[in-house]
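Sample intake sheet
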Amino acid sequence: MQLIEHLGLLGILDWGAAAFIVLCWWGIGLMIDNPNAKRPSVTMLMSQRRRDWMKVFVTRDPRIFDSQILSTLRQSTSFFASTCLLAIGGVLALVGNTDPLAGLSAEVSDMPVPVLIWQLKLALVALFLTNGFLKFVWANRVFGYCAVIMASVPNAPDDPLSYPRAGQAAELNIRAAINFNRGLRSMYFALGALAWLLGAVALAGATVLVVWIVWSREFASIPRSILLKEGS
């Protein structure tokens, strides 16, 4: 009964704002990964460049440059996975000790906020961070698969296995990159979810801001314009 009473302190605006940020996170991801053919996202434009990379890779000799690029990509996923773990640890530590938040609440409001409410709001942040961590880990592993397939591409361009295996490496590279981008989006939305500590209106406003940032970088950024200038 006490749990239900505490949850009742979250009004319709709070639940609506929480649902709004989850819906926006899902919706913007769907838009980026499945864009309109007339307005491709940076993610999709880069996917084609990754296919072009593997075609060039077949005839490149030596292939040290390619291995260095892939190593850098794997290092990026490792770095962000570690960052997510640290952030999750920080959030969980705050969940276990909400006194600082309670003290802040007491300064700005006369109504005490139950610990469970703070924990619930922080749980949303932790969920986004956990999703990001899992995406980064999977991206790192798929980049590893890509490295193995690249190593199996014959040195002779006229070998019948060269281009098919290079094509497989390209698709694995693309899948790894897509998961990496999903992890980054989860981190963006985790930062936005922190605004819920300030209330439902703040969460809704932060959600709109995060969506605009993510959308603009995928569909209205300078890097996108540069990629489009080169053609298909």
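Comment: The longest helix spans residues 115-151. Residues 41-229 form a domain with the Butyryl-CoA Dehydrogenase, subunit A; domain 3 fold (CATH 1.20.140).
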